[in-house]
């Protein structure tokens, strides 16, 4: 997770949120729609950053992030977010407390072993039969951030899901077909899975 712990990283996320064309057009609308159509219910947003996705999750959703400045930014926006230590003792955040887990633009910031560990750490908080959504940037997006350490494509997402014992329901490229990800920095790999009921 090199470089993502600092307040500078939080400030970078805030700057990018409203940079360029984003000031004029609702560029996040397709991504909000993508989350909402998955009907994720109460979400645990792992690696929530400054809350871009958490803002679009269901009532009672909670973010967790290792960057305390990002967590503070979420709280300033009226969102519920914790550092990992805080989450461990937070009310209504115990085993099976969440309908789903979202891990968006996180796994590319760490090696495979740590990625597996993160999922293993937070999956117990998702109810049996709950959804797990993993999202990573495609090529053009991967190149935009120097804190990215590993390119995670469909095969990489599926490997994480299988290691975690999840049942993969589907994978898809969003918002455009896969080939577009080589030039469009906001194209994403999406994986939707289920936590087994037993």
Automatic annotation (TrEMBL):
Gene Ontology BP term (one): methylation
MF-aspect GO terms: methyltransferase activity
Cited Gene3D superfamilies: Vaccinia Virus protein VP39 (3.40.50.150)
Identification of the protein by name: Methyltransferase type 11
Keywords in alphabetical order: Methyltransferase, S-adenosyl-L-methionine, Transferase
KW S-adenosyl-L-methionine (keyword) present: yes
InterPro entries linked: SAM-dependent_MTases_sf (IPR029063)
Domain of life (superkingdom): Bacteria
